[in-house]
Amino acid sequence: MKIRIFDDSLTMAKAAADHAVEIIQQALADRGHAHVVASTGESQVDFLRELSFHRDLDWANVEVFPIGEFIGLPADHPASMQRFLRDRLITKTGIKRFVSFGDDASQARRIAEAGAKLRSAPADIAFVTIGGNGQLGLNRPPADFEAQELYGTVDLDLAFRQNQVNEGWFVDLGQVPMQAISMSVSQIMKATEILAVVPDAGMALAVKVCVEHGISPTAPATILRTHPNAALYLDRDSSAQLSLPENEAPKR
């Protein structure tokens, strides 16, 4: 896993977006279309904004697959992961192909259709998040590294749900769904490239675990170290607990 460290989160976000654009452009040049798995959350806001600034990219031939969605939440709810991506990436770039989970009646069919697309052409790049407990996307510990389904149902623990309230997505804990649809770890790992953008001092311990501890389902993000093309983008705060050589300065 490649680790890139920057002085601040904005510089980090811009560099990560430039990296993502290079990968997408290469896929478009090779096949005429690109598949992108995209994550949501506060850690992704700056990154997605910087990505959306690349208006010259052929976004019409990019298809986006959300990494997950809350179960039972209306698609227009401010906390909806699909709305998050629509507001910050889809509408700003003019992306025409965006996998939507729909309602309960059509959900299984839409997931099956998404699976068929990714089997025929795996994701060129996956934007993933790392949680404070080492989760990967919505795959919380202990994660199932072997499950092969594209999306599965995961339970959301109290800490995760409380964090959703703390970030302002919900008024109180009672409004936060108990479960979510989540792309499986094995499906995330099938992406040709994986890009994890992780800012903020509050993530320093989780980053240390991800980079320096043993690979284990109890810290799902550790599996990124087994991927040949995974890149971890950090700012000075989120990298603060890493055991780096004294002469290693943040990369720009």
Q: Could you please describe the fold and organization of this structure?
A:
Helices cover 33% and strands 18% of the residues. It contains seven helices and ten strands. It has a seven-stranded parallel β-sheet with strand order 1-10-9-6-2-3-5, with helices on one face. The protein has a three-stranded antiparallel β-sheet with strand order 4-8-7. The longest helix has 23 residues. The protein is globular and about 45 Å long.
What is the gist of this entry?
With 252 residues, the protein is of the alpha/beta class.
Radius of gyration over all CA atoms, rounded: 17 Å
Main sheet summary: 7 strands, parallel
What is the count of helical runs? Answer: 7
Alpha-beta classification:
alpha/beta
Query: In the CATH classification, which architecture applies?
Result: 3-Layer(aba) Sandwich
For the secondary structure, the number of strands is 10
**Major sheet: arrangement of strands:** 1-10-9-6-2-3-5
> In whole angstroms, how far apart are the ends?
18 Å
The parts where pLDDT drops under 50 for at least 5 residues are: 246-252
Strand content: 15-25%
Overall geometry comes to globular
Question: Which whole number gives the mean pLDDT?
Answer: 91
Order of helical and strand elements: EHEHEEHEHEEHEHEHE
The number of domains is: 1
The fold-level CATH name is Rossmann fold
CATH classification class? Alpha Beta
Q: Portion of residues in helices?
A: 25-40%
